[in-house]
Design goal:
Blueprint lengths: L2 H31 L12 E3 L2 H9 L6 E4 L22 H5 L5 E5 L7 H7 L4 E5 L4 H14 L3 H14 L9 E5 L4 E3 L4 H8 L3 E2 L6 E3 L2 H7 L3 E5 L3 H4 L1 H6 L2 H4 L2 H4 L3 E4 L1 H5 L5 H11 L2
Parallel strand pairs: 1-2, 1-3, 3-4, 5-7, 5-9, 9-10
Antiparallel strand pairs: 6-8
Length: about 280
Amino acid sequence: MSSALSKTVITHAVINKKLTSRAISTAAIIGAFAVPSLSAQAYERIVAMSPDVADVVVALGATNKLVGKDATNHNPALKSVPAVGMHRNITAESVLAVKPDLVLGSYMVQPASIYQRLNGLKVKAVNVAPKEEVSTFANSIKSIGSYVDKKSEGSQLAKRWNTGMSPMAKTGKRYLLSYDGRIVAGKGTVGDELIRRAGGINAANVSGLKPMSREGWLAAKPDVIIIADHNQAVVGGVSKFSKRPEVAASAAGKKGGVHFWPADDFLRYGLHSPDVLKKLNAVAK
């Protein structure tokens, strides 16, 4: 190889090396400032149309992303977050008023058509828990985690929640979970599932949340009766309620088995449901 040709080859090699080095440096700089890719868009203005969803957002440390909540949610962390209506009868207009870029909710939200309506108005709306099921609630925790950029935290929280919902040893105790001393949580309800997982027997002889006759209450023979605490005045408190003939004849009426708990404890699944299982199990002892 001639001297001139050798110099040319060497010169090209040096130039290529410099260009390669410069390209690597540029790529490194770009990589250092690049925004990590997300499985979903990074949402910053979120409305939680149902209380169960809002509580999960708070638990995952994303409270700052919430710009709207359901009016029935009394989580202290959300006291400054505007209410956009009640989940049982919510309108698209009230939700849109806070200019969200994402709207989340569960089966609790009515009318159910609001999800389709909001999506039609170009605002992403997702029903993260379309059914009242243990597995559905656990999956909703993970879904919410993905939407608020807390995927790992969501998976961990869902795993802990699932573990806490493991069935407990059977106690043989009979329960009636009642909204107002008349309507009870029958077969196929959240209350029914909680009773069974707490090791008890649902004494209600109806399906769904329905009124039960006095004869039904008498035949139920409950060891434990739990009523929504905001209806305590309606039924006259423990003393008056326990004197009802259909209650007085039961073990619950005779042995102080009548209690008043927050309605959310047994009418819906929530992050506190594993603790409710423990309470249900302990109250029958």
